[in-house]
Amino acid sequence: MAAGRDTKANIWQYPNEGSSCTPVSLSARRDIGKQERYLQANNKELNRTFGYPSNAIKTSKYNVFNFLPLNLFEQFQRLANAYFLILSIFQLIPQISSLAWYTTVIPLMVVLAMTAVKDAIDDVKRHQNDNHVNNRSVLVLVNGRIVGVTLTAQSYSPSSVGNIYFLKLHEEAGEAGPVLLCCVCVLYTGDNVLYSSETNLKVKQAVSVTSEMENNLQLLSAFNGEMRYESPNNKLDKFTGILTYKGNSYFLDQDKLLLRGCVIRNTEWCYGLVIYTGPDTKLMQNTGKSSFKRTHMDHLMNVLVLWIFLFLGSICFILAIGHGIWESRTGYYFQNFLPWKEYVSSSFVSATFVFWSYFIILNTMVPISLYVSVEIIRLGNSCYINWDQKMFYAPKNAPAQARTTTLNEELGQVKYVFSDKTGTLTQNIMVFNKCSINGTLYGAVYDKNGKRVKVCETTEKVSFSYNKLADPKFSFYDMTLVEAVKKGDRQVHLFFLSLSLCHTVMSEEKVEGELVYQAQSPDEGALVTAARNFGFVFRSRTSEIIVVVEMGKTKVYKLLAILDFSNVRKRMSVIVRTPENRVMLFCKGADTTLCQLLHPSCRAIRDVTMGHLDDFASEGLRTLMVAYRELDSSFFCAWSKKHSEACLSLANRENKISRVYEEIEKDLMLLGATAIEDKLQDGVPETIIALNKAKIKLWILTGDKQETAMNIAYACNIFDNGMDGLFCVDGNDGETIRQELSSAIDKMKPKPLLEPDPLNTCFTTKPRAPFRIPEEVPSGNYGLIINGYSLAYALERNLEVELLRAACMCKGVICCRMTPLQKAQMVELVKRYKKAVTLAIGDGANDVSMIKAAHIGVGISSQEGTQAMLNSDFTFSQFQYLQRLLFVHGRWSYNRMCKFLSYFFYKNFAFTLVHVWYSFYSGFSAQTVYDTWFITLYNLVYTSLPVLGLSLFDQDVNETWSLHFPELYEPGQHNLYFNKKEFVKCFMHGVYSSFVLFFVPMRTICNSVSSDGKEISDYQSFSLIVQTSLLWVVTMQIALETTYWTVISHFITWGSLGFYICLLNFLYSDGLCLMFPNVFQFLGVVRNTLSLPLLWLSVALSMVLCILPAVGYQFLKPLFCPSTVDKVIDRMHRMKHPLPPPVQTKLKHSSTRRSAYAFSHKQGFGSLITSGKFMRSMMPKKDSFSFKK
Amino acid sequence: MDSTSQICQSRLPDSTALKQQQLPAYQLQLSATKVLTGFFITGAFCLGMGILLILSAKSTKEIEINYTDTCANCAKLRENAINFDKECTCSISFYLPETMQGNVYMYYKLYGFYQNLYPYILSRSNSQLMGRDIKDVGNCAPFSKSHNGTPIAPCGAIANSIFNDTIILSYNLNSSIHIKVPMLSSGIAWWTDKNIKFQNPSLNNLPSTFAGTTKPPYWPKPVYKLDEEDSVNNGFINEDFIVWMRTAAFPTFKKLYRRLNRIQYFTEGLPAGNYSFNITYNFPVTRFRGEKSVVLSTLTWSGGSSLFLGVTYTVTGAVTWLASFSMMAIHLMLNGRKTVYSQQ
Description:
The complex is a heterodimer. Chain A is of the alpha+beta class. Chain A contains 41 helices and 33 strands. Helices cover about 45% and strands about 15% of the residues of chain A. In chain A, the strands form 6 sheets. In chain A, strands 13-32-31-30-14-26-29-28-27 form a 9-stranded mixed sheet, with helices on both faces. In chain B, about 30% of the residues lie in helices and about 20% in strands. Chain B is built from 10 helices and 12 strands. Chain B has helices spanning about 1-5, 30-60, 70-80, 120, 125-130, 155-160, 190-195, 205-210, 240-245, 310-340; strands spanning about 25, 60-65, 90-95, 100, 105-110, 165-170, 180, 185, 255-260, 270, 275-280, 290-295. Chains A and B meet through α12, α34, α35, β33 and α36 of A and β1, α2, α4, α5 and α7 of B. β33 of chain A pairs antiparallel with β1 of chain B.
C-alpha cells in the first residue's frame, strides 16, 4: 500500500518522467508475496495450464437432461416436500396406511409440477440472458489482427487471461480486468466503481516500455512480456504486479489497471492485457456475497410449520394412547366381529401403528400447497409492479421491474431505507442556476407585475442565438444577464471569462462547433458550460495555452500556472497571460475561504454578494465565489521562481507549496458568485415527507463529501431547521468517536438517574449473545452526520451498538465518504441488531454491496450503468416511485399475504381437526371423516382459488387512500397482521370451527332418519354433511375476509362452491362408481343426502355458528381497541367525496446554512494539465491549435 | 419523440383494469348498520326455524324397547360362540298408550357397536357386491376366504357381522288373540343401493351363481337363502343385508328393519293397545358391552324425533339477538373512540 502511494505522488509531481516503471527492487518482489499469479502475454498454451476462469458467464442451473433429476432433488430439499414424500411412502405400508395413496401423491405431484414449471421458465430466461451476455462481442488481438469475438467462441477463448484486448473511446471495459499495455496517451476513465457515484474521471497511464508499441499490431502480437501479479482480491485501490519484458522488470500499480466496468474517455483507443477474468475481476470480487434472500414471513412460516409438526406429533400421541385404552377396554371384546390383525399382539402394538396412521391422516394440518401458493401470490403481486403504469418513466421508456419475485410482502414492512445520494435522490445533473455579478443578482425570474415566479416548462428561455457555439441543452431564464453580456458590461465579461479560464475541464471537438466537455466534477462542467453559452467559449487547451472564443472572437490565453484545488484550500486559481499581455489570476472557491482573501476595497460588494449567497443557500444551491487579481509581471516572475523551488523541494513539499500559493492568492477583487443547482429528482422531498409520516427512517449513505450530502439532506427534507440538534461525528480515533456518540445519545435521551441503562445490563450479562436493540424514543428531532473515516472506527465491534443507538434515535442520518463495503456494513449492522426490514436504494456500482446486503435492494436505472439494476430486487427510474412501491404495492402485498396466511392455516385446521373429534367416536381407529377424494381435492381444488383470488385482488384501502395516509403503512413494520399471536388466533378459530363442524352434523344425524324412514346416520352421509358444511363455512369465511369484490372474486368464490357440487356429482356418479367400485364408493350419497332438508339445516346452523362470532369479533375489535388504521379507515368512510389533489408546497430553507464548494473529492488535474502529457493524442488532430511544446 | 417511439417500442404497460388493479369492485365494509341488521335477521331466522323444528319433532311418536337384558338368558347363551346354532327366542310385551298415526317404522338400534372402525369399514368388496366379480375378495381381510381357501360371499367383516335377530311385532287384541302386525321388508334401503350398488351376479338360479363361494363364518345360511319368504329378496340385494352394509357413522345407531303395511287394523297406523315383540335372539352384543333395542316411530318432514336441531336453532337465535342488542349498545357507547382522529 505504501509503495503504491509513493508512486502515485511521484506521478503527480514529476509527470514528465512519465512513469513509475523503474526496474523493480527486491523488496517490491517480496511485496507481491506468495499469493500471486503468473502469465505470459500472447502465450495461450502456457496460460491455459493455470486454469484461470473463463469470462463466459453461466447463471443457468439446468439443461434439458438434468432438469428433472436436479430439479426434483432441489425440491425435495425443502422440508415440506420431503415431508410429504415420506408421508406418501408411509401410505404404502399397509399396516399403518389409513388413507388411499393418492390423497398425498396427487397434491404433491401437482405442487412439484407447478414449481418445476416455474423453475423451468426461470431457467429458460437465465439461459437467454446468458446467451445474450456471452454473445456480446469484444475486440481481441488474434494473430496480428483485431477480431471481434464473442465470449463463448471456443476457438479463440477470447479475453481470457493473457490475451490482448482492444478498447475504443466510450467503450466499457467489458467483462475482463485488463492491465493497460499501451495507449497513445494518458487516459481518463469514467470510473464509477470507487467511492462516489459521481462520475469521476480517473487517470490511467500505460507503462512506458509498452506505450512505445503504439498502434503497431505486429509489435503487439509479438509482445511476450511475463507478468507476476497479486491474486484476485476485492481491493479497488490497490494493485501490485511486475511486468518482465526484454529482461527488465517494471513495477505496476493500480494506475495501470483498468477495472471492469469502467468507460474509456479522452483516448481513441487502448490495448490492454487481460489479467483477471470473470469472477476474478475486482468488480466481481467487490460485489459481495450474493445470497438468496428470504423474507421474515418465510422464517415465520418455517417456525409455524415446525409448531404444527410438534402439535401434530403430540396430538397423534394422545390419540394413540386413546386407541390403546379403547382397544384394551372395548376393541378386545369386539374381536368377534373384527379380529385383530395377526401382527397385533396387544393394544400397545395397535396403538403404535395407529400413531403413524393418525400421522398420515392429520398431515393436512401441514399445508402442502402453502409454499406453492405463496410463490404464486408473490409472482402475481410482482407482476402488478411490472404492469404499473404509474411507475413507468416515459422519458427513459422504463417501466418498473420486479426482478425478484419472492420478497413482495416485505415491501410492506420496511422500516429503514438506505439511500444513495447521487443519481438516486438527485439527477446527477448540475445546472447553472443563478449568479451574482458585481452585486447584482441574476437568474431569478419575475412576471410582469414584478413578482417572483417559479420556473416551469412554459417559462420563456433566454435565446443564445448570438452564440454559435452555445450548448443547446443549456437553459436560462433571466433576460437581464444576457442583456448585460451583450451590453458589454466589463464585470460581467470578466466574470464569465474567469469561469471559462479557471477550471481543469478538457474539451473535445470532433465535429466543428460541437464541443464536448470532460469535467472532473459535474459542477465544473456546469460552470464552463454556462460561460460557453453566455459567449465565453472554452474551446481547447494545451499545457500552455487556453483557447477561448470571446463573444465570437478567438483569443489565446497563455496558461502560466494552475493553483490546484485541495480539500484544505477549498479553492483553485489559474494564472494566465492575456492576449493583451496582462498577467491575471482567476480564482474560484468556497465563500468561507475566499472572503478572507478579498481586497479590502471590495467590502461593499462583498456584503451584497454575501446576502445573495444566503439567498442561494436558502434555495439549496451549491455556491462558489469568483474573484480575480491582476498581477504585476515582475511580481509574478518572482513568485514563479519561488513556486518552482517549492515544487522541487524534497522535504515538506506540500506545505511549502500551499504557502507559496497563499502568497499570490490575496487581495483578490470580487467578481461575484455562482449558484449551481444539484437537481433533485422529481418529487423527492414529497416522497421523503411521506416516508417520514409512515415512520420509515431514511439514511443517506453516500460516497460524497459531507457538505454536498448535507446540502441535499436539507433540500429533500431529511434535515430541517426545526431540528433540535445535529450531531457530527468526525473523530479520528475510537475514543473520540465513542465520546461523541455517547454524548449524542445522552442528549437525545437523558438518562434516568436511578434506572440502569437496559442496554448496558444487556451487555454485562450476556456480552456475546446476539440481542435486539429495543426502540428508543428520543426527546426531540435530531440528525446525525458521520463520515466514512470515523465510520471505520464506529463500525468496530465495541462501538457499533453505540453508533446504532445514536443513529436510530435520529430523525435523519447521513453517512458520507463511504466505501461500498461500509455501506453494506451499515446495512448489516441494522439488520443484525434491529428486528426490522431494511431497504437499500441506489443506482451505481458502488451501491451494489448495499443493495445485496439489505433485505430489499432497489436499483434506480440510470446513466451510471446497470450494475445496481442487475443486482437489485426491484428497479425503477425515479426515486419517487419508492412511495408507490411501498405504500401501494408493498402494503397490498403484505396485507394480502397476511390474510392469505391466516386464512390458509385456519382452513387447514378447521379441515383436519374434525378427524380428531371423530376419533373419540370411532375407537381412535384412524378413520377419516371425509371421503378420500375430498381430502385429495380440498386444498388443491375446492379452496385454492378463492384464497388465491383474495391474495391477488384484495384491496382493503384503495391506492389513493394508502398514498394519502402513510400511517396506514405502520402495521406492517411491526408485523401486526400476521405473527405468532395471530397464528394462535387462527388456530383457536380453526379448533372452534372444527368443533362446530363435527358436532352439529353429528348431533343432527345421530338418531335421525329421513322423512321416508330410511337411514341417514350412515358414515357416507355424515361424511357428505361435514364436507359440505366445511366448504360452506370456509367459503363464507373468505367472503367475509374479502373486502374488494370484483367480478373475478364473485366468480371464483361462488364458482368454487358450485364446482364442488358439480365435482361431487361426478365423483359420486353411478358411472364412475360402477367403473371403479373399490375407489369410488360413495354411490348415491349425493342423490339421497343432498336433497334432505335436514342436511341443509345443519349446514346453515354450522355456518351461523362459525361465521357470526367472526363477524362480531371483526365488528367489536375496532370499537374496543381502535388502532390508527381503524381510525383512518373510519375517517375515510365518513369522507364520501374523493380527496382534493395534494397541494404542492414549496419547501423553504432557512438562510442560516451555507452550501459549500463542490469540485471533486480528490485533488484536481492541474498538474497533469501543466505537464502536457495528455496532449499527444489531440495535437495531430487539431491542426489549428497545434503548438509545439 | 414521435420518431423514436416508432422506432423503439414503448414499454408502457397495458392500461387494462386488471393490470392496473383498477377492476370495478364493491368495497365490503362491515358498517354498524349492516352488521346489526345481519345479526337481527339471522337471529330471527334461527328462532323461527328452531321453534318450527321443535314443534315438528314433538309431533312424532316414538317408542323404544331395550331387549338386551330382557332376554338375559339368550344374551348369556350368545356370549359363547359355540352356541351359535342353538335357537333362542324371547317375547317382550309392551303397552302403546296412544295410536301411532300414519306410517310407522320399526328400527333396531345398537349401542356401542362400532361400525365405523377403519379396518371394519374397509373390509368389504364393492365389486363383489355389485355382482361384477363374485370371487373378488381383495379388501375383505380378515374374512376374505374360508379355511380351505374358498372365497366368502359376501366377504368382509361388515357382511359377516350382520344383525341377524328376527323381530316380529304382534298386536294383542286381548289375551288370546295375537295378530301379527303386517310389516314390509321392502323399500327400506336406498334406491341407489338396491338397484345399482348391490347386484346379484345373475338373476336366475342364485345357488348356482354363488357356487364356488362359501357363506361368511357367522352366518347360519348362505346369502341366497337370506329371505325364505320372498325369493326375490335374496342374494346381495336382500334389503336387510343392504341396510346393514351401509355402515353407521357412530357407535350408536338405528337401522330401519321393517315398515308397517297399512292394511286391516292398521290402515291408520298402530292403534293403541297391547303389543309384544317376538324376538329370535341371535346377535351377541353383551360381549363388547353393547346393547340393542327395537324402536317404533312415526315421522314428519324433518325426520324423526331428534330435538337437537330445533333446540340449537332456538338457542342460537336467542343468543344472536342478545348479542346484537349488546353490540348495538357497545357501538353507541364506544363509537366515539374510533372517530377521534385528527390529521397532523
